[in-house]
Every structure is written in structure tokens, then in C-alpha cells.
């Protein structure tokens, strides 16, 4: 078994170690929940302050032009594009993941007018399923069908307009084969929509190279954009010339917003997927975190992610009552480790009391996210040791850990 | 003509004068664009800082429960409710005005299944029209029809499912008769949706007493929530028991979000109109501004708004080339004054160069917003004098004022 000293040596040789200084983390905490809400970058408070006090407070309405507020959805989109393998003009930052999924799913149905089925992953984060229900509920004859994500092929008949899948499963951490699935879906005449919420910033994402038609994602997990930070959407360049594809046809996506014309005409390009004025405070925080991400080598991030998850798995796989749910194969693993334990809820609470923050997903999964920019091998070693101690001591049986609360 | 000294005396007797200290405004600026982007409250930067550095940075994921992030859309909704005459359980803060209009408009069509026409005001802020186009474009047989807001009655046939109107016209500042129009629309069997973006915080709004079915509004104008701050929506209590009314059926509106069930079932009550996790930074800023609003007497706000707009109109109505577009009758006036001038664009630019910030709306309207909490009679007098000087001197003809830019 690897020792703590050996982990310290790995940290000393870690090419990403210096990024730890770019994040603020409270003392005494090992934060393994960056897959749910990423940590605060050191530079974010100052950027948010400047937008509040200077751009808003001092320059007021003039900032729409002078501070580039109109351009912010595109500017941030161009900066996220390389993180998901998209062209700069294929990505825009706006709204939320759910709202953006509504837009692209409607667009997909419009691009496949003779087809009426949307396939989704029955085990996906449910908002994707609920939104698919919402969209198909508005389109006569359309239906939403839930399938096993590993086997969408059996359902790919001539009725399928689009398939929506999570690139990484939010519970198990399993990574899907984006290019392979995309190719099979498209070969069946359907369009492929990826939800990259749990992969952007965590694993390599190659939307354009995979041939993806659409994608949506959030920025508050591995991208450290802050609670409720704005989401993004990707539309393959080949779909950007089509007519009005999406029904959230707000003013901000109009070809000539300041002409205040009564009829809607979409902007050229990705701007037609915009709806409303951007949330400038949320976008300011995201801007600061992208400053950090632009300095990070993505291959190094992936290598360290795999090293940390390998390390954690090796340290906990033989613990009593623990089953490792996350795939062992590197090409099937995201950047989190899910462990099944019959008493997962109180075990996670006991870990949190020790300062090791992971989370729990019903009925029995403990989730631990590994964020390569601010987590060390030593911390992973310490977290595994805390878990071993919690299980061996039985301290999780303490009554204060038994109450069920909400954990996001 | 009233003198500047008389205005100073009015300021000395102004019961709202002390509120000026609650806002940060740059020196040398008379800000008459609070109808577009409200000024920064003094306490907002600290509240935003605390959410960023403490709730996010220090408490991390725990803030979802410990800082009440889950409850924030409802808590803010309950605080805005009295400002629009709604019951606390009828209002929620979320998304943007356009997205919320999409939700309530779809709900209205579902509540009137035999009807398929949506009436809108052809002169409304266009996002309302574009969204109506987006919704009706998804509902077979539905259509969006633009009418004169003063005369919707002629179009109220048995086909009309819903009418969407702005309480205050964003260009002219005209205030519509909310209870009267609502009653006539409902007498014809249709549902009434009000857009209160330009009236909340500016004029008395009585949604429940008027019998309104739905309403949407933004918080970045008179409510001072900051650029791109979250919007709100109102649903009359009688419509909250109906089935899944709105199609943006995201996870946050599910009856049991943490059960992660594959099928959507809406929350009881107004929560069913939620879609996604809230934007916490934007909501933090709004929270701070509502602290100010809760101390303001609404009758005093309305009285001062009318006094300021009366004053401005009396000072500018006889200027050369100026036509007052805003109604003179108090019960038909919002909290802005619109002046028509053939060269409105350069005149507004010349005023901005003097520190008097208003805005321009094509083809020839100059808009001036009067915010009773942070504007004095003296400032209004000074603004009117600047306008007189700009017109008399002809300085607006300077070439630097002629470039057309975007002004929101």
C-alpha cells in the first residue's frame, strides 16, 4: 500500500501543484465535492467587486457598451470553447443547463421533422429527463423514451429524432464513448445532444471532433464559476444557418435588437440561441475562473485526475462494506469515484464532520470528486484514511449523522 | 416657472430624501436611467462579497442547506410580493423575464385549451412579442396577434386564450389601467398576463386585487438588483393547483428533487414554476436592494414620482422642438418622461456628456426615468436646465454626438 510519504513525493513532482495557490479553500477541509460546486478561485472576489462597484456602481448604464456587457455571452463562450473541443463561434454562455437543453432539444426536433422520439438515459441527472418530457409535451406526437445509456443502439429506429446523454454519469462517474455513440446515433439518422456538466474541466471533451450536434453544460462544477453560475450551449456550425430553431426567442437573440421590431428574426450564428440579457455578476465570477483554466494544460489535468482516482480506489477498495462503482478502466472513468455502502448516508456525514467533504446520492452511493487543480495526492491519502477510520470506529453510527437532509 | 431654490425647499421637506444615502452614485452625474438599470445600493457590495467569500468560498457545498440557498427563490419572492400586491405564495424569483414569460404563456394556453390566440401589444418591449411568437410557434394552431394596447377589446373574441400587456409602456411611459383591462379580458374568457418590468418599484402594482392571472417582471430597473439580476413571476393562487402547466420542467421544480426520479412531477404551489438552481450571486445583490425597498413607503414613492415627473414636464414642455409624449394625467403615467425630438439621439449624447444620463429609443424618443429613492427635485431642475442649454446652444450638433451606438 502506498504511504503518505510517497504521496508527498508525488505532490512534489506534480506539474499542476502550483494551481493550488489559485484557489481559496478553508483550513481543515479536504474538498471532494468539486464535482458539485467547485472551489472559489482567489481572483474571483476582486473581479466580482469590480463589476459591482465600478462597472455597475460607477459607470452604470454606460457599461453595456463601455465594459462590453453585450459581448460577454460570446466572449465567455469563446473562452470555454477550447475546454470542450468546440470552435469559438459554436459556443455561447447563457441561462441554465435546463433552459439551454430545452432550446437545443426543440431545435433537434425541428431539424428532424419526420421523427418524434427523444431517447434519454434513464439514469441521467433527472433535469435532462424532465426537460425532455417538457419539450416532447409541447410537440404533438413526440415522446421521450428512457433507455440504458450503454445500449441506445437497440432503440435507434427511424422514429428517433435525438438522443440526449450525459458524457459522465453523475452518480457512477462512468465516462461514455462520445465519438462512438455520436457516430452510431447519427448513422441512424438522429441527432446527438451531449450534457457535459460532469465532464467539462474534468476530462477531455471533443465536441467538434466527435461530430456532436448539440451540447449543454454548466460552469459551477469543475469550472469553478460559482453557485448558480451561467451555463453554456454548443451548436455544431452546420446547424447555425438553419431558420428559427429555438422557441425561447427573446430580444437578446434578435438580428437587430435595437430596432425594436415587432417580429422576431434570429441573429446570424450562435447568437440566435440567446434569449435575455446576461447575468453580469455570475458571468464576472466565471470570467475570473476561466483566467485560471486558460493556464492549465488539459493533458496534465486528465493525467492527474486519473492518478488521483486510481490512488483513491486503491486505498479504499478493500475496506469493509465498500464496493467501487466507478469503472476501473481509464477510458470509462470521469473525475469522480462512487462507492456503494449500505450506510452511505451516515458515513458521508461522519466524513464531513472530519472535514472530508463528499456527498451522498440515494439509495446508497457516496460520491467523491477529484479536482486536479486544487487537490493533492496527500489529501487523497488522508481522505482515504479518514474513510477507513470512520468505518473501523463505527463513529458513523452516532445519531447526529442519521438525519436525512438535502445534499446537492 | 419654479426656481432652483424652490426645488431645494421641496427637497428639504421630502420624506424620502434620506434614501439617497442608501445608494452609490458617481459624482457629477444626474442619473435619469434608473428605468433601464437602477443604481447600486450602498450595502450591495458587502452582501455580494459575503456570498462569494463566505457562503461559497468558506462553506462551499454546505451553503445549499446552511445558508438557505434552496429557499432563496421563495424568500426573495415573498419579499417582492408586497411590491406588486401579490400574496407571498404567489411569487417566485428565477430566470429572466423572457424565460418566465415563456412559462406563464404556455400555462395560459394550457388553461384555455379550446382557444389559440395570444394578443400582445404591438408597441411593447419586443421580447414579449418574440416570446409570444416562440410559444405559439410550438403550439399547433396557435397564433400571436399584435394589437393597440389601448383597444384590446375589439379583438377579444372566443379564440383569445391570453392577453400579454406591459403595465407601463417602455417608450412612452404610459400606465395602463390594470384592473379595468384585466376585468374586460377575463369577461371575454381569456387570461391576463402583465409584464410589470417598468412598473415594479415605480408605481403601485396590485396584481391580486386586479385579478391578474399571471405576471412577469425584472429586478434590475427600479428595484436596483444589478445588471442581469434574476426576474420574477407571479401566478394567481387559483392556478397553482392545476397540473404540469409549464414546459421548462427542470429538476428544481420537481416535487421530490432529491429522490432523482426519472419522471417529472411538479412541486405543490409556486415552486412548480422553477426550473434550475438559482443564480446565487445575482440573488445576493437583489437581497441587498430589497433591504432598502422594504423601508420605503409605497405611497410616498408614488407621490414623489408624480412630483418629479410633473416638475420635469413643466420645465421642458415649452422648449424648442420638444414634444412631451408621456401622458399628463397622473393615472396614466409611470415613472418616466418621454420627449420626442427630431434629433433625439445626439441631444441625449450631449446630455450624457454633461453628466445627465438618459437614453434614446428609435426613431425619435428621449427617455428620462425618475427614481424617487435617489433623485432630488434639484437634480430634476438641473437636468431640465442642461436640456435647455443643450438645445439653445446647439452643442448637440457636434460631430462626436452623431455616431449611433447601442444604448439599452
From TrEMBL, chains A, B:
Question: Molecular function terms in GO for this entry?
Answer: kynureninase activity
Q: Which terms are listed as keywords in the entry?
A: Hydrolase, Pyridine nucleotide biosynthesis, Pyridoxal phosphate
Cross-referenced InterPro entries, in alphabetical order?
Kynureninase, PyrdxlP-dep_Trfase, PyrdxlP-dep_Trfase_major, PyrdxlP-dep_Trfase_small
Q: Which residues carry this modification: N6-(pyridoxal phosphate)lysine?
A: 221
Q: Which reaction does this chain catalyze?
A: 3-hydroxy-L-kynurenine + H2O = 3-hydroxyanthranilate + L-alanine + H(+); L-kynurenine + H2O = anthranilate + L-alanine + H(+)
> Any idea which positions bind pyridoxal 5'-phosphate?
97-98, 125-128, 195, 198, 220, 251
Residues making up the signal peptide according to the UniProt record: none
The family assignment reads:
Belongs to the kynureninase family.
Role this protein plays: Catalyzes the cleavage of L-kynurenine (L-Kyn) and L-3-hydroxykynurenine (L-3OHKyn) into anthranilic acid (AA) and 3-hydroxyanthranilic acid (3-OHAA), respectively.
Question: What name has this protein been given in UniProt?
Answer: Kynureninase
Amino acid at each position: 500500500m502506498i504511504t503518505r510519504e510517497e504521496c508527498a513525493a508525488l505532490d512534489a513532482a506534480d506539474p499542476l501543484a502550483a494551481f493550488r495557490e489559485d484557489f481559496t479553500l478553508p483550513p481543515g477541509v479536504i474538498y471532494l465535492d468539486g464535482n458539485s460546486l467547485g472551489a472559489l478561485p482567489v481572483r474571483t472576489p476582486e473581479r466580482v467587486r469590480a463589476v459591482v462597484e465600478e462597472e455597475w456602481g460607477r459607470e452604470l448604464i454606460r457599461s453595456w457598451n463601455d465594459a462590453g456587457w453585450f459581448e460577454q455571452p460570446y466572449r465567455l463562450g469563446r473562452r470555454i470553447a477550447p475546454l470542450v473541443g468546440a470552435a469559438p463561434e459554436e459556443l455561447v454562455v447563457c441561462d441554465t443547463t435546463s433552459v439551454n437543453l430545452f432550446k437545443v432539444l426543440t431545435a433537434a426536433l425541428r431539424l428532424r421533422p419526420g421523427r418524434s422520439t427523444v431517447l434519454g438515459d434513464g439514469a441521467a441527472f433527472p433535469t435532462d429527463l424532465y426537460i425532455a418530457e417538457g419539450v416532447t409535451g409541447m410537440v404533438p406526437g413526440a415522446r421521450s423514451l428512457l433507455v440504458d445509456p450503454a445500449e441506445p443502439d437497440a432503440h435507434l429506429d427511424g422514429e428517433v429524432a435525438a438522443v440526449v446523454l450525459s458524457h459522465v454519469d453523475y452518480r457512477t462517474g462512468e465516462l461514455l464513448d462520445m465519438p462512438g455513440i455520436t457516430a452510431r446515433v447519427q448513422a441512424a439518422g438522429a441527432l446527438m445532444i451531449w450534457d457535459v456538466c460532469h465532464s467539462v474541466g474534468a476530462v477531455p471533451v471533443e465536441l467538434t471532433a466527435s461530430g456532436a450536434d448539440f451540447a449543454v453544460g454548466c460552469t459551477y462544477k469543475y469550472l469553478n464559476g460559482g453557485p448558480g453560475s451561467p451555463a453554456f450551449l454548443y451548436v455544431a456550425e452546420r446547424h447555425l444557418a438553419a431558420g428559427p430553431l429555438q422557441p425561447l426567442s427573446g430580444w437578446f437573440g434578435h438580428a437587430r435588437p435595437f430596432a425594436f421590431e415587432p417580429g422576431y428574426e434570429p441573429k446570424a450564428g450562435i447568437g440566435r440561441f440567446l434569449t435575455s440579457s446576461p447575468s453580469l455578476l455570475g458571468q464576472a465570477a466565471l470570467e475570473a475562473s476561466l483566467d485560471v483554466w486558460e493556464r492549465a494544460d488539459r493533458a496534465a489535468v486528465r493525467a492527474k485526475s486519473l492518478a488521483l482516482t486510481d490512488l483513491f480506489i486503491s486505498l479504499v477498495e478493500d475496506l469493509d462494506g465498500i464496493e467501487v462503482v466507478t469503472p476501473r478502466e481509464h477510458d470509462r472513468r470521469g473525475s469522480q469515484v462512487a462507492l456503494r455502502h449500505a450506510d452511505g448516508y451516515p458515513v458521508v456525514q461522519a466524513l464531513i464532520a472530519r472535514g472530508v467533504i463528499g456527498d451522498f446520492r440515494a439509495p446508497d452511493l457516496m460520491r467523491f470528486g477529484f479536482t486536479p487543480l486544487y487537490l493533492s495526492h496527500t489529501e487523497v491519502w488522508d481522505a482515504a484514511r479518514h474513510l477507513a477510520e470512520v468505518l473501523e470506529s463505527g463513529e458513523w453510527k452516532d445519531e447526529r449523522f442519521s438525519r436525512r437532509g438535502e445534499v446537492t
